[in-house]
Amino acid sequence: MKLRTISTALVLTGALLGSGAATAAPAAVLAGPDIPVAAIQADLAQLQSIASSNGGNRAHGRPGYLASVNWVKSKLDAAGYTTRVQSFTTNGATGYNLIADWPAGDANNVVMVGGHLDSVTAGPGINDNGTGSASILEVALAVRSSGFQPGKRLRFAWWGAEELGLVGSTHYVNSLSTTDRSRIRSYLNFDMTGSPNPGYFVYSASGQPSGSLALQQTLQGYFGSIGVPTELTSVGGRSDHAAFARAGIPVGGTFTGAEGVKTSAQAQKWGGTAGTAFDRCYHRSCDTTSNVNATALNRNADAIAHAVWTLGA
Ligand code: DPN
Ligand code: ZN
Questions:
Q1: CA 172 to CA 156: how far, in whole Å?
Q2: Which of 8, 47, 115, 184 is close enough to 130 for a disulfide, judged by CB 3.0 to 4.6 Å?
Q3: Which intervals hold domain Peptidase M28 (predicted)?
C-alpha cells in the first residue's frame, strides 16, 4: 500500500496559492505503481519450497540455486522479457547470473536494478536475499502489467555467487565491453529488504561515483513521501553494487539491516526491538519465510517501483 501524502500536500499548496479551481490542480502523484506485497510473499514461499526440496538451501553450486534461476526466468519469459543466463565458474562449480531486458526504451541509456539470488549453504536465504530478488521480480512484472512505456532501457539482474564474494556481479561488469558499460546510467541494488527487526537504510552516495546522489535522493524521496525516516548507510564492498561503482557507474539501493544491532534511537523512530539484531537469522537456517517483516518488504518494493518509474522515464 502506498500513501501519497506528498500529492495531497502539493494540491493543498496549490489551493492556498490560489491556483484555485478544484477542477484544474493536477495531482502531483508519485511515479510508480503499488507493488502488491502478497505477490512478493507468494514468490518467497516458492523460493522457500525450492530450498526445502533441494537440501534446505539455494547456494552457489547446489541444485536449489539453478532451480531458483529457472523459476524466476520462467516468470520473466512469460511476461515478454528478453532473458539471458550468463554462466561463470567459481569454487569448482558453475554459477549463473540471470539478466532480463524489457524490450523497449533507448538501448543506449540503461537503468539497471539487481540483487543476489543465491543463499548461503546454511539455510534457504529468504530475507537474504529472497526479499530483494522477489521484489525486483514483481517490479519487473509490473512494468508489463501497468503498460509503462519507459524512455530508457530497463534491465533487471539476479546475481549468482554473491555470498562467495560478489562473484557473479563482478563477472558481469568485467564481461561488458567499454561501450556496453558506458550505456549503463545507473545501478540500483536491493539486498535484504524485509529484515524482521527492520531499519530503513538508503545507500549513501558519499564516496560513490558522481550521479549517485540523484539515486540516493530518489529513494529517500519515496520514504519521505510515506513519512518513514531513513538513515544513510555505507554498504561498501558488502554487496553487488560494488563492481558497478568501481566501473564509475552511479549506484544506489536500500537495505533493512543484517547482523547489526538496532539502537534505542532507531527503535524509537522505526519501532522494533532495541539491542537486537536487525536480522537475528542472518546466514542461519532460520532465514525462512517466518524471517520477513511484511511492512518493510512492502515499503521497499514500492520504493523500487518509484525509482524505476522515475529513473526509467
Ligand atoms: N551482502 C549481504 C549478504 O548477502 O550477506 C549483506 C549485506 C547487505 C550487508 C547490505 C551489508 C549491507
Ligand atoms: Zn548474505
A1: 13
A2: 47
A3: 97-307
Q: Is residue 68 part of a domain?
A: yes
Residue 153 falls inside a structural domain: yes
The structural domain count of the chain equals: 1
Q: Answer yes or no: are the C-beta atoms of 135 and 193 closer than 8 Å.
A: yes
Residue 203, in any domain of the structure: yes
Whole-number pLDDT of residue 22? 44
Look at residue 173 and tell me if it is in a domain.
Answer: yes
Residue 107's domain is classified under what CATH number? 3.40.630.10
For 99-134, the DSSP string reads EEE-S-SEEEEEEEEEEE--B-TTS--IIIIIHHHH
Local structure of 213: helix, strand or coil: helix
Q: What whole-number distance in Å separates Cα of residue 117 and Cα of residue 58?
A: 8
Please report, as a single letter, which amino acid is at residue 171.
Answer: H
**Is ligand 1 within 6 A of the CB of residue 258?**
yes
Testing ligand 1's pocket by substitution, the residue of 126, 191, 259, 282 carrying the most ligand atoms inside 8 A of its CB is 191
Express each pLDDT in 215-263 by its tens digit.
Answer: 999 999 999 999 999 999 999 999 999 999 999 999 999 999 999 999 9
Range of the domain at 211: 7-312
Model pTM greater than 0.90? Answer: yes
Of 235, 240, 287, the residue with max ligand 1 atoms within 8 A of its CB, to mutate for a pocket test, comes to: 235
* Blockwise average pLDDT, block size 10, the chain, 313 residues: 40 33 53 97 99 98 98 98 98 98 98 99 98 99 98 99 98 98 98 99 98 98 98 97 98 98 98 98 98 99 98 98
Residue 88 has φ and ψ, to the nearest 5°, of -155, 170
Report pLDDT digits (tens) over 26-46.
Answer: 545 689 999 999 999 999 999
Q: Count CB-CB contacts under 10 A for residue 269.
A: 14
